[in-house]
Amino acid sequence: MQYSRLFGPVHSRRLGRSLGIDLVPFKTCTYNCVYCECGPTTVESIERGEFFPIREVLAELRDYLSGSPELDFITFSGSGEPTLSSSIGEVIRFLKDSYPSYRIAVLTNGSLFWRPDVRGELLPADVILPTLSSVFDDTFRQIHRPAPGISAMQIVEGLECFRKEYTGQIWLEIFVIPGINTRPEELDGLRAAIERIHPDRVQLNTLDRPGSEDWVQPASPEELERIRGLLGLTGVEAVEPVRYELSAGSTMTGEWSDAVARVHELIRRRPCTLDDISASTDLPRREILKILREIQAGSIIEEKREERGIFYFCPE
Ligand code: SF4
Question: pTM value?
Answer without folding.
Answer: 0.84
